Amino acid sequence: MPVFARFRPRSASLRLWLALSFGALAVALVGVLSWQVERVATDKLQDDIGLRLQTRATALAGRLDRGLYERLNDMRALALMPILDDPLANEDTLRDLFDLMQLNYPDYVWIGVTSADGRVLVSNRGLLEGVDVSARPWFSAGRKDPYVGDLHDAVLLSKLVYDPGGEPLRLVDVAAPVHDAHGVVTGVLGAHLSWRWAESLRQDQMQPSRANDPVEVFFLNADGEVIMGPGALRGQVLDTASARAVRRGERGAVLETWPDGQTYLTGFVPTQGHEAYKGLGWTVLVRKEAALAFEPVHELSRQIWLAAIGIVVIYLLLGTLMARWIGAPLHALSVAARRIQARVPDAAFPPERGYREARELTLALRGLVDDLTAHERELTAMAAGLEQRVRERTLALSEANAQLEVLAMTDALTGLANRRHFGDQLAREATRAAETGRPLSLIALDIDRFKAINDQHGHPAGDAVLRQVALLLEEQVRASDLLARVGGEEFAVLAVDTGMIEASQLAERLRAAIENAGPIAVGRAAIPVTISLGVVARRIQGGELSRAPERLLAAADDALYRAKRNGRNRVEVAPG
Asked: 5, 69, 174, 403: which could form a disulfide with 274 (CB 3.0–4.6 Å)?
């Protein structure tokens, strides 16, 4: 037999069908499981990678804030020293102190004290002494309160101090007022920090990871301008997703495209200040090329699918062996049957072997062949009759089961879903809502003064009102909604994937439909009918799933009773 002919449905053997079934089942199951495992694992890994970048940005922002806080405290503490009561009398001591501070903290480009009118009295190395700095922002702000200014280009010091790297000198100002014993401002103590202090923090963050985890760090000022980072972007206002998120007060990590057209994973954090220091409103961005950032994700995915392929191969081998074992007895019976049909001398069924069904089949076939000729017509008639009876009984049983299922879920009076079916569906939809995160709404409604209708017109009239109200409600609910009668005059509507606004609008349509229908005619009586409704909408969390149906019903009932108390024929919404 040609190879491909074996795969034709009429030509394929049971062993081949079993092997193919095992293989298809293995591929499907392993594929689905591998896809699910890969999705969950890669999502978690991507979140972890983003969190690491955010953590690095957070640590750098904290160091930046603490550094400026410490420099501000230097100014505060120094401003309280007695030698500042008369700077000129203590000129040499102060200059030595300022020089020592610069020696211990080289990022101090200039430290000095001014008079109350803004003239520099004493400074390190005598820089700017005698110069009027009253127009500088740090002096004006420093007269009132301790002050930290944003990064700016040097003005007065640009010709006196040179940056070792040859770049323009950029400074951060720190200042504090100097008071006399009576609390009167006698001057301002100020300092200029070189921007290389912040640049060194940025480089320290990048240097240890350049080889195995290369990242780039950016500082943005309050206007979103890149003040520190690669030279190509410095001075530009950055309008990326991360920069916009920081301006909204957010922090985190995002996959985004930068102005160079490349995709990066960026961790972003705004500076928050430290203790009494409120911060400069800077932003710290730590970015990494997406291809490098997600390389572990791709490797994990590859490993998962390689493992999946290995498992599928093992399942195929096991399936083939199992198919051969299951099909061997039947194959032997098939060969024997063909030999008997061909009247081959000494042809007989093989000895009983294999699993129980195969042994019983061998015995049964042997008996059938012995009686086949004598009872062929009888067996044909019996088979035809038996098939007809089975068909009739199967049909009757299916109809009975269908009727029982409808009766079990339906309210006999109105034809709507009953309380049991409504409760089952509520539990299922609550589970689905918890998995998808979509809202789930429930409307509880009640016929106003229904007891009075029964008392005045009798229970048959009350039943007629219930049926008519059910018909009116059915015309208003959506195809996706479940309308049920859950009590005597009580109804409920389950609205899936529906928020509070849509649910409230649906409740109002139901109320208006009953009111606008006018009195319901029952016999010679025209019975006015209105309804009161309570609405609740929730997003169900996984941890509260077990009690979610009960809480939804209770909240809807509370809103319904509030509608009753507030005058009936109205819609009330559950809070929350």
From this structure: 69
